[in-house]
Design brief:
The complex is a heterodimer of chains A (about 290) and B (about 300).
Chain A: H1 2-32, H2 39-55, H3 61-89, H4 94-116, E1 131-133, E2 136-138, H5 140-162, H6 164-174, H7 176-181, H8 186-211, H9 222-232, H10 237-257, H11 263-277
Antiparallel strand pairs in A: 1-2
Helix pairs in contact in A: 1-5, 1-8, 1-9, 1-10, 2-3, 2-4, 2-8, 3-4, 3-8, 5-6, 5-8, 9-10, 9-11, 10-11
Chain B: H1 2-27, H2 35-52, H3 57-81, H4 86-106, E1 109-110, E2 113-114, E3 121-122, H5 130-149, H6 151-161, H7 163-168, H8 173-199, E4 201-202, H9 209-222, H10 228-243, H11 251-265, H12 285-288, H13 291-295
Antiparallel strand pairs in B: 1-2, 3-4
Helix pairs in contact in B: 1-5, 1-6, 1-8, 1-9, 1-10, 2-3, 2-4, 2-8, 3-4, 3-8, 5-6, 6-8, 9-10, 9-11
The chains are: A mainly alpha (about 290), B mainly alpha (about 300).
Chain lengths: ~290, ~300
Amino acid sequence: MDLFLQQLVSGISIGAIYALLAVGYALVYSIYNFTNWAFDAFMAFGAIMAFIAIASMAMPFWLAAILAIVLTIILSVGTEKLAYKPLRMRKAPRLFMMISAMGVNLTIVQTMNKFFGGTFRKFTVDSVQPIFIGNVSIGRMDLLAGAISFAVLALLWLFLYRSKWGLAIRASSIDIQTSSLMGINNDAVAVIIFGLTGILSTVAGVFYGIKYAVYPTMGMITIKAMIASIIGGLGNLPAAIVGSMLLGVLETLVSGYISSTYRDLFSFSFLIVILLFFPNGLMGKSGDEKL
Amino acid sequence: MGYINAILILGGINIIATLGVSILTGYTGLFTIGHAGFMALGGYLSAILIKEYSVHFAPALILGGLFAGVASLIIGYPSFRSRLRGDYFAIATLGFSEAIRLLLNNMKQLGALNIGGSFGYSIPSGMATVPVVLIALFLALLFAHMFVTSQYGKNCIAIAQDEVAAEMMGVNLLRTKLIALFISAFYAGVAGGLMGLFFAYQSPSFYSITQSSNLLAAVVFGGIQSLIGPFITALVLVAAPQLLLVLEEWRLIAYGFLFVLIMVFRPQGLLGYVEMNFNFLKRGWNKLFPRKARRGEVLH
């Protein structure tokens, strides 16, 4: 039972990280209708920047995190300006957007691989002493990761639903052409969207790095976030969060009780089973294409 | 001579797999970044058939291809049926290939069979000679050309251009996509089998995400809706790194950079929409399917 509870907490904290990533994908997808493959590179970039700031410049954790977030926002917005905007202006097919995003991903990840090296590194963050509740030990970082992730998600919700810019973003997600006719500045919306993407990816990257390790291809776990958002149901932020929690917990239980080698295979088979029985995800609406 | 042979064989193998990706990504518009997984499945099955059951390599390769094709339907059917946008199919392929690779890496035993885990699975060598690969390549090219110029191929192109419009015109989306996926995975499976025959062993490390990126790169550089473009670039991408070993570690960085540059400045690729010319075969392809009809369908 103790082991189970421990796994549950660990699963929820990894689920919270998946939720951040899933929301980051959903933001771009809901407006621009393509999967931002470069997102996982941003995640690794943010984590590595924070790592370098802490390890070589001896910055305190919070300062390093802020620096990493700023740098990732610059990278993310730069990517949008250089690699996505020209294609969008030309109304290029989605396939071309995806290939371009994939190119950005390869470039960033491989550049980091070259200069940072492919080895796994540990964040040296103090206060890793776990908290004991009865016999259950809970990592402080697990708690912190969960709490901050939920705080970021709540702030994002407030921004999207209680601010004027949030209204602009939601209007753009319904129809970007009409919204620009109504006086919404599309370029500003794009900057905000990719800025938010940068924040989400860095927060997720830093916590994932603390929980496991920092390495250039750490962004591969964003596949899990995508799987989670499909499981939950597409185009629906609460569903993405529920899917992420579910996947995080189930995955942790599988690696805890069966074997961690089958964890990824499990997540993937779970996706196939869900798609077979719930073609639109657990909470999704009809997946039919809108014309 | 051995060096030239190696390049010819490896080039041929990569071209076969690239043709498969071209049918799926170039013609049908379905983005895949996990074709290495299908190569691994086909490769391991044909290797096991050859070594444990002493099957002749030709039927073993075909069975390996069919196995990869059937496996592709397992991920293709749920993701196409749910009408998820193409992106999620891409995620499914990526997840699938990574899961296969991890499984092969960690599995030392398959039933009573020792498949070696991450050390690889050795098979008798000397079967993938230049003529064998060239014959396989020729058949693959011929069949791919026949497919993309057939009614099925036209359906695929229609789907790539506009799914909704294609469905309105009576194209069965699910069936057409599954056919394209099956053929494409079949090609990957055969290529994986040949890879094992050439290296005389199978290893999960052949089938990493780098291999998938290479295949995608050949199609993107070579051109959308073209067989001859990816054919040429696949050969160049195999030969070039061997000639310029110094650049090896910069290769993927350059690929990524080129992806973006090509999409921004020349999205159709080097030879996009250029059809292979089989006039010398005098079979009257162009009479049956006038070039105009194919050339006219330019997206942008």
